[in-house]
Every structure is written in structure tokens, then in C-alpha cells.
């Protein structure tokens, strides 16, 4: 039985590839459709030769701008002045992925995770600024909607950053409950910066808000340099209360906890100030680590840990431009870049009794796959009427197969939505191809001209030695992937971006 | 009871420090002498409130130029295309150190490990070239001598690189048996390089040699681009045979295995060629990993693993100038530099039943400490007639104290031997001070002028942000350490280097 839902030409290690771009696209879409036609029986079929499992509760914890090497279990922790015992413990009890990829910044990663679709398809490839009146299309089928339709209760506690127009707010995109904030964290401190005139703000941005499904947002409290310190604490209080209230429900739950840590500015919660030897960033990381532990502890206390899958990851790499208020990656670059430092992030899966404790894997997997994998595990229906780029990795995650179903990851940057938009980068096996790249959000940019750059990221993890000349077979693979994507975007046109191209990397 | 043997003013977290340089030196030396006067009872006393343990067999495995992040248990392994399951397993069964420091290159690290003395004291701060007629002074009391005098049988299988004059050869420096090679690996391929005229070589260097205590060296086979592939395999065969032959002996053994892996050129052993996806370097790393496992397996098969302490470390960071025939560090720089990439190396202690399995520590410890710690554990006599910079870390290693006895590490580079020679760098707590530094063996050099550079290596692991201006207290600490060292070198003059200052970093 073929479980490779979605994946867009990526799923098949043994696929036969057609030769023209149109054929490639059609072949892929056909593959996907065939799989998805049987989607409702996927979960059941998956378990047919092992003990049947109830649909698990699902918890996603998403760190903001946490670097690959920040957690101790990825080489940092105490080494970088901020121990992370709870994340390390989570890795010991679960599956630690070392080639897990996010998008290059907040908004596209969140969009990719909740839709399973490349941000260029959903018009969400760039973060929007406050007041830009942008947001995710109400036509998108988010993971919250898919799981909600499958009988899950759903809630989000934390940072949204997928738009501020009414129909794009979380309580209108599939979540039963929302408590949190709409924008990137630093937007809430604009009015306190030197030289800022409060008359320019015109009531934006909103503060900490809440709403139940379909309601209008209510402001709970304003956000500023003082109150930012307590956002995660407040979100956590509500998240834990929600989980406790759900534990007696007959329906499973999906809780999405997008922390405001470790995004700058790391305004210290006084209970954590000085706990690390790394300053505010490290203190914030340790606070977040503590919150990760609280979630796992609560699941154990409620006795539902064997029926709850928890995922912890980060939306992108560290904000190097903000040093010392930033994390660390052993790789090149940080947020806003397609170099490894920008997109290779920690990711831990945890499900006691179902996911082998202490497993580690360097297989390629990405944020898009969270959508498809969790939808499948939850018995939800992966949309069949649009391209889904996320791949079902449930067999891999559960240890029933050693390999990921993914051979490559593609990144688009900017507001371009044309079908022939050139991807900024692709990881394919141990290689990375770049057509243009930035060392950090704020540059400098490397434009690689007519010949894309090729790096071997196992031999050269800091992407310093461009080996395109002797590795044109990698560029051939890139071209093939690109042609397939073009074909699918001709068949299913992308949603134009509503963001204005004012962020780094706009094109 | 004070167990801090050696350490040169470093050992006492609670020491009172005198105020003049002479007093500091005197104070330290007095401290050391007081400790060492009771040295013969150290081992017994250490165990007085726990079950007495027999003196363990001691095995040191030393990798050549392996980078901090090469092993999987330090973040690399499969991530970098070369899985290291045996080193990872060793870490799971033992103690993994994440702030362990070597010297900046082969020779000084080997000298520091075998003497417990700063390479500037022994004249061994620079690697010597073939035919330079240099070597370690026969006056030095090596770990092999100390343990030999304490009743150990001793042997070395692998790379020496502490000199080629007769009295400096290993069979004359405390080892009962020697099989291996005298120089750095690439010296054996000189005669096969383009443009080399064999008439220039005049019989140097020697090949694979062997000798028993006091004998002249015998050449077993020549070394060249073909035969280099098999050196570790041949050494390992003899090392394992030696360990097996020793297991029935009433005396404990000390076996020193300085691998030729992973020094360039990584001439592939055909049995390992292509096993990694990283090319010859990765294949060599995997071969070495296999050999590490063979040693541990043999100890277990013989049933002596509970009475054998095994240490695995590297002599310095990766040879970045040789990419792709090089390892990787997440830190700045490689071999030849005092940046973290040059001197922060993997180090795993393994002693089932005595060292807690799976422990990890970021406490500062260094190669010098191996001498003192292993001498103490073996009941050997740490020399009391000369400054010993290594500190006894046995209580820390055995988990009887959480902290290392070391607060700082100092590095000297070059052939200078004057007492007031300025150290190239010091790590002190989470800070690094540099007076001059090289990004790689072959430069470029940063000379920091009149104000040393200060980096916070927890916040800034790649040493990019010089914060000397706001951290003059770190420079004060550096100055205090420097003054103490000057005083001791006035009292005990350094042995002048016999190496010619032709290597990078010579001064």
C-alpha cells in the first residue's frame, strides 16, 4: 500500500519519472490523487498489521528563531551557556531529526506547517508588517480545519503571524480557541523606540488578544517592552488548562503552541532573568525549555502521554543580525537565508510507546510534512483538490521504515507568484543548490548568475566551497525538480502574495 | 583532603591569591608541593570512603586532527556523511566532555598529554619537520615512565611525533614496546609529490618501525601513498594482541594508541573506501570509529572492562586548509589556531561501573590533565621536582564532584622560551582572551595589538564579536594568570625548543 500522501514528485524514491515537464507534473499529480482518493482509509490501513491505535492527541510546540545548535541535544545547551534539560529529555524519550528543514522566516514556515503547501502557492512566502492588511487565504485548508472536521477539538496559544485581516485570524481558520498575538514580536515594541512618534501608530498593532471560533478578537492586555516578558507564561497557563479540560473529552485534541520565545527582543521574565550565562536570549531559551517540560509533565500527569504525539521545532534559524539576542547554528547563515543556518532547525517527535525512545535520524524531512503526517495520523482528510507538497512521513516517524519519503526540499523567497519563478534553493540528497542566497536577513546577497551554486553539506556544512563545476548532475536534478514545479503551478496557479515586498529577499 | 595535584594556580576555585607575581608563583608552587608530598597515598586516600578499586588498566586513543563535530555524539556523524556508531556508543556508556581542550597542533598536544607540562616548558610547542633532529628531552617524566615505575606494562601503537633523535624515541621514553611511525603523516608522501626529486630525501623519513625498550628501531615496512592506508589496521592488530596477552598478567597495562586517522592524506583502506558519503576523510573517520569499537569490544570479551579506563580524544581541530580532506568544528578556526575550532576537541572517558554512563559535562578540562589524572588513578608518582600544569581530575571524572578543578587553559604558540613570553590565548570561565590568533594554520593572522581580544564563547561560539572594551575584568584575569606563569618560569626555566620556527605560528 502506498502511503506517500502529497509530496509533489518527491515521495517516490522508486518513482519512474516522465521526461517532459508537463508529463512530470501530471505524473506527480496523478500519483498524489491516486493516493488521496483512498485517504479516508489511510490511518486504518497503516495499522492493519499492528495493534490498532486510537487517533492521538496532537501538540505542536513551535519555537521562534531558535537556532539548530541551541538545544543541548543538538550540541548547545550548557555548551552555549543555557542548559535545556527538558528538550534534551524529550529527545531521549523520542525521535531527534538532524536534517529537518523549515522555511526561511516566520510566516512561510507557519503557513507551510498548517497547509502542507509551499508558501509560494499560498502567497505566504514573506512575513507581512503590521497594518499591511495581508493574511492567509480563507480558502486554505489548515491542519486545524482538517483535524476539526475529523472530530478534533482545536486551540492555539501564542503567536499567529499569518495575517491580520478578519478572515485570516486563527479563530476563522479552524481553531476553536485562540489566545495570543498576531504579529512578529518586535512589532510590539515599535512605539517604545527612540525617535518613534506615537501619533504614527494609529492604533496598531493589537496587543494580546483572544477569541473563540467565529468571534471577533478581544484585547486582553496591551503588549509592550514590559508585558512581552509574560506572554509565554500566560499562553502556557491557558494551554495547560485547555489540555486538562480536554483530557476527559471523548474527542481528541489538537493544541498548537507557537511560543514567542526565542524571538528578539528577549524581554526577560524576572523568574528567569540571569538563569543562563548568555544574557536575555539564554534566559528566554531556558524559560521556553521549562515550558516544553511543563507540557510533557502535564500529559504524563494526566496519563495521556501514550496517546499524544508532540512535535517541537523552530520556524527558522537564529537572528544573527540581532546578536547577542540570537541563537546559534553550526551552519552558515540565519533567518532569512536558504543557507543551512537559516532553514535547518531542531525537530523532536515524542510519543511514548509509539515512537522509539532515543532514536536519531539524519533523513530529510521538512515543515510541510508536519501537515500531511499529522493529518494522516489524526485520520483527517488531506485535501485532494490542490497540490499538497507535504509528504506523509508517519511510517518513518513511527519507525516502521528507516527512510524518510523525501529526497529534496525547495525554497522560494519573495513575493513572486509566477509559475516559472526560480526557486532560491533546493536541498537534494547531500547537496544544496542555490540560485541566490543571503548570509543573513540583512545581506549581503550572493547572486550566483547563470550557474547555480552547489554545495555538499556533509563535506562542507558551512557552504563555503562551491563545487558546481564538477557537480553538474546536481544542477540537472535541480532543473528536473524546477520543471515539475512549474508544470504544477501552471495547472494550479499560485495565490498572489498580499505582502508588500519590503522584507529582505523580496523579489 | 586536597587532591588537586598540579594545576599551577588553576586548581583552587577557593585559593587565596597573593598579590605580587613572585608571591603568586611561590604560592602556587607551594600548593602544588604540599599536595605532591603526599602523592604516594593519593590513590588510596581517594578511595578511603568508598570501596577500594584496583589500579585500572589504562588505554588512551588519540585521533589525529579530528574536528569537534566529527563524531555523531558531538553533532556530526551521519549529519556530516560519516556515521560513528562506536564513538557514539562509547559516549552513551561513558562521560562526554564538551569543553575539553587540546593544544593547537600534534606535537604540543602529545607532549602535554605525556608530561602534564605546558609545551613551552618542555620546548615542544611546535611540530618539527622530518630531519630537524629535534625531540622531547630525555629528562621529561612521561606518563609511560610514571606508570612503568608504578608497575604498569606499557606500549604504544601508532604515531609518535615527539622527535626522531634516539633518546627521544618512545622505547627510550618509558614504553616497553613501540610499533608505529615517528612523524606527521603527510611527511611520508613527500617523495611522491609532483616536482619532488628523490635525491633530495637522503633516506628520510623512516617508515613503519618497531622496537622494544632500549632497542634500536627496526623498519618493518616503508611508508608511502599505498601503505599509509593500512597503518591503523596494522597498529590495531598489534594493540589488540598486546591487550589480550596482558589480560592474564598480574600487572596492569597502559596502552597508548595514537591513530594515524584522521590526518591528511586520507589514503583509503580499500575495506572502507566509499563507506561514507564524505570521501576519503569520512571513510578514514569510519575506519577509526570501527577501531575504537574493536578496542572496547576486546576489553569486554576479556572481561576486563570494569577494570580498564579508556580515553578517546583528538590532538587538535580539523585541518581546514586541506578541505575536503578535513573534519569539521562548529567553532571558528582549525589546527594551528587558538580559536575554539583549533583547540576544542571531543573527549570521552569510559570505565564501566566506575564512570557513570551517559554523563555529559561542559566543565573545562584539558590534555595536560590526562597526565595527572591517569597518573593518580594508576597510583603513579606525579613529579614533584618541576612544574606540573596538569590537574588531577579523578574525582570529577569518577563523578564524585560535579565541577572540574580547572578554571582556565593557556596556550603558547611558537619557539619562544623566555619566561615573559606572552601566551597566545587563555580560556577563563566562559571567556577567551587572544593576543594573536590565526584563522587557520596558514593564516590570516589577527594581531590584537596592545589590548587583547575578549570573546564570550557561550554567547559567541564563533569568536566574531570582540568585547574587550566592556570586559576588561577578563583581561585582568588574563594578566594575573600570565604573571603567575612568568614567576614559575623564572623559578623553573623552560627547556628551549629544538624545532626551527618554520611552522605557522612561530615567533
Automatic annotation (TrEMBL), chains A, B:
<keyword id="KW-0106">Calcium</keyword>
<dbReference type="InterPro" id="IPR000917">
    <property type="entry name" value="Sulfatase_N"/>
</dbReference>
<feature type="domain" description="Sulfatase N-terminal">
    <location>
        <begin position="56"/>
        <end position="377"/>
    </location>
</feature>
<comment type="similarity">
    <text>Belongs to the sulfatase family.</text>
</comment>
<feature type="compositionally biased region" description="Gly residues">
    <location>
        <begin position="1"/>
        <end position="10"/>
    </location>
</feature>
<feature type="region of interest" description="Disordered">
    <location>
        <begin position="1"/>
        <end position="27"/>
    </location>
</feature>
<dbReference type="Pfam" id="PF00884">
    <property type="entry name" value="Sulfatase"/>
</dbReference>
<keyword id="KW-0479">Metal-binding</keyword>
<dbReference type="InterPro" id="IPR050738">
    <property type="entry name" value="Sulfatase"/>
</dbReference>
<dbReference type="GO" id="GO:0046872">
    <property type="term" value="F:metal ion binding"/>
</dbReference>
<dbReference type="GO" id="GO:0004065">
    <property type="term" value="F:arylsulfatase activity"/>
</dbReference>
<protein>
    <submittedName>
        <fullName>Sulfatase</fullName>
    </submittedName>
</protein>
<keyword id="KW-0378">Hydrolase</keyword>
<keyword id="KW-0732">Signal</keyword>
<dbReference type="InterPro" id="IPR017850">
    <property type="entry name" value="Alkaline_phosphatase_core_sf"/>
</dbReference>
Amino acid at each position: 500500500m502506498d502511503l506517500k500522501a502529497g509530496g509533489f514528485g518527491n515521495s517516490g524514491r522508486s518513482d519512474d519519472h516522465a521526461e517532459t515537464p508537463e508529463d512530470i507534473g501530471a505524473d506527480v499529480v496523478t500519483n498524489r490523487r491516486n493516493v488521496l482518493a483512498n485517504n479516508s482509509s489511510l490511518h486504518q490501513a497503516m495499522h492493519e498489521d499492528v495493534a490498532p491505535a486510537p487517533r492521538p492527541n496532537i501538540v505542536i510546540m513551535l519555537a521562534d528563531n531558535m537556532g539548530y545548535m541551541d538545544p543541548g541535544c543538538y550540541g548547545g545547551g550548557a555548551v552555549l551557556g543555557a542548559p535545556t534539560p527538558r528538550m534534551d529529555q524529550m529527545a531521549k524519550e523520542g525521535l531527534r531529526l538532524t536534517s529537518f528543514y523549515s522555511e526561511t522566516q516566520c510566516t512561510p514556515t507557519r503557513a507551510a506547517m498548517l497547509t502542507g503547501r509551499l508558501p509560494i502557492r499560498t502567497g505566504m512566502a514573506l512575513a507581512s508588517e503590521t497594518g499591511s492588511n495581508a493574511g492567509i487565504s480563507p480558502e486554505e485548508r489548515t491542519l486545524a480545519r482538517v483535524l476539526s472536521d475529523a472530530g478534533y477539538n482545536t486551540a492555539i496559544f501564542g503567536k499567529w503571524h499569518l495575517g491580520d485581516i478578519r478572515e485570516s485570524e486563527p479563530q476563522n481558520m479552524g481553531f476553536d480557541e485562540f489566545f495570543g498575538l498576531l504579529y512578529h514580536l518586535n512589532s510590539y515594541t515599535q512605539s517604545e523606540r527612540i525617535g518613534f512618534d506615537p501619533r504614527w501608530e494609529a492604533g496598531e498593532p493589537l496587543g494580546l488578544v483572544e477569541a473563540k471560533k467565529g468571534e471577533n478578537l478581544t484585547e486582553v492586555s496591551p503588549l509592550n517592552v514590559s508585558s512581552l516578558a509574560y506572554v509565554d507564561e500566560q499562553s502556557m497557563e491557558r494551554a495547560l488548562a485547555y489540555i486538562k479540560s480536554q483530557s476527559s473529552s471523548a474527542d481528541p485534541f489538537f493544541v498548537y503552541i507557537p511560543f514567542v520565545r526565542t524571538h528578539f527582543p528577549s524581554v526577560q521574565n524576572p523568574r528567569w532573568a540571569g538563569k543562563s550565562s548568555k544574557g536575555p536570549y539564554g534566559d528566554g531559551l531556558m524559560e521556553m525549555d521549562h515550558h516544553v517540560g511543563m507540557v510533557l509533565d502535564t500529559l504524563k500527569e494526566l496519563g495521556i502521554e501514550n496517546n499524544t504525539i508532540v512535535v517541537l521545532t523552530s520556524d527558522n534559524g537564529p537572528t544573527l543580525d540581532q546578536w547577542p539576542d540570537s541563537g546559534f547554528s553550526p551552519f552558515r547563515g540565519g533567518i532569512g537565508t536558504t543557507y543551512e543556518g537559516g532553514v535547518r532547525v531542531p525537530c523532536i517527535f515524542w510519543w511514548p510507546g509509539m515512537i522509539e525512545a532515543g532514536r536519531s535520524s539524519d533523513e530529510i524531512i521538512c515543515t510541510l510534512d508536519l501537515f500531511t503526517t499529522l493529518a494522516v495520523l489524526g485520520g483527517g482528510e488531506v485535501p485532494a483538490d490542490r497540490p499538497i507538497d507535504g509528504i506523509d512521513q508517519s511510517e518513518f516517524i513511527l519507525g516502521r521504515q528507516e527512510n524518510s519519503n523525501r529526497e529534496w526540499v525547495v525554497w522560494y523567497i519573495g513575493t513572486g507568484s509566477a509559475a516559472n519563478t526560480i526557486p532560491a534553493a533546493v536541498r537534494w540528497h547531500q547537496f544544496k543548490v542555490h540560485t541566490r542566497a543571503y548570509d543573513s536577513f540583512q545581506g549581503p546577497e550572493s547572486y550566483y548568475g547563470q550557474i547555480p551554486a552547489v554545495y555538499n553539506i556533509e563535506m562542507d556544512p558551512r557552504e563555503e566551497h562551491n563545487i558546481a563545476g564538477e557537480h553538474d548532475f546536481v544542477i540537472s536534478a535541480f532543473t528536473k525538480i524546477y520543471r515539475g514545479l512549474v508544470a504544477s503551478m501552471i495547472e494550479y496557479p499560485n495565490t498572489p502574495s498580499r505582502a508588500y515586498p519590503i522584507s529582505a529577499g523580496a523579489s
